[in-house]
């Protein structure tokens, strides 16, 4: 069972978008997938409920009680994606971090959002497994506009950090529309979404190695 923790101290960075699309990818790949929703907004749970009748359904688990979520995992779960509560630091996520195989941190490409993420990453660096490089942490630039100077400068800044930039996801309203349908980019094969799907390839390869 591989467990991916999606976490950020900055609200609105795209945590639930990452978590739901990852969960859909795993489910469509034939893996029995669980989406652990620890965010008070429960956006991930509502998304999972909307795709409950699909062959690639994802089981949502309410993790409002941080200590109890492990007891609710099915024995046959193959992939677990955790949508962490926004605004949390590493100490708040201890019960998730200790079971994670990788941590994915979404960051918006602006100086303000990058600065807001520094404190969270500093708190992660104090986690023993992270410090010893036994627990990989990857940054995902979300809502990127790679043709703009702002996004380009943000990526260059992030590349100087000790954690790798494992993907850049371009800005598109498709994520908002698909979330409302309980769908993901990976549910479609059209040319319109193909380029956006390709944005995920480096992240998926990184997770596979984790």
Automatic annotation (TrEMBL):
Coiled-coil positions: none
Q: Name one Pfam family in it.
A: CbiA
Q: Which CDD domains match?
A: ParAB_family (cd02042)
Q: Which domain of life is it from?
A: Bacteria
Q: Where is the CobQ/CobB/MinD/ParA nucleotide binding domain?
A: 4-174
Query: Per its UniProt record, what InterPro entries does this chain match?
Result: CobQ/CobB/MinD/ParA_Nub-bd_dom, DNA_Partitioning_ATPase, P-loop_NTPase
The name this protein carries in UniProt is ParA family protein
Species this chain originates from: Pseudoxanthomonas gei
Instruction: Please name the taxonomic classification of the source.
Output: Bacteria, Pseudomonadati, Pseudomonadota, Gammaproteobacteria, Lysobacterales
């Amino acid at each position: 069972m591989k467990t991916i923790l999606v976490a950020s101290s900055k609200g609105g960075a795209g945590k639930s978008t990452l978590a739901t699309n990852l969960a859909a990818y795993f489910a469509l790949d034939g893996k029995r997938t669980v989406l652990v929703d620890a965010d008070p907004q429960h956006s991930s749970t509502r998304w999972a409920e909307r795709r409950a009748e699909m062959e690639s359904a994802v089981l949502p688990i309410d993790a409002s009680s941080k200590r109890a979520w492990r007891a609710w995992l099915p024995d046959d779960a193959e992939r677990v994606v955790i949508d962490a509560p926004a605004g949390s630091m590493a100490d708040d996520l201890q019960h998730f971090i200790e079971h994670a195989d990788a941590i994915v941190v979404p960051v918006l490409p602006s100086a303000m959002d990058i600065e807001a993420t520094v404190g969270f990453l500093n708190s992660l660096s104090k986690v023993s497994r992270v410090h010893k490089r036994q627990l990989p942490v990857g940054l995902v630039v979300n809502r990127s506009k790679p043709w703009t100077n702002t996004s380009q400068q943000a990526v260059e800044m992030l590349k100087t950090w000790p954690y790798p930039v494992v993907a850049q996801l371009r800005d598109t309203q498709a994520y908002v529309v698909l979330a409302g349908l309980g769908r993901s980019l990976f549910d479609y094969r059209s040319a319109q979404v193909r380029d956006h799907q390709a944005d995920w390839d480096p992240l998926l390869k990184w997770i596979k190695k984790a």
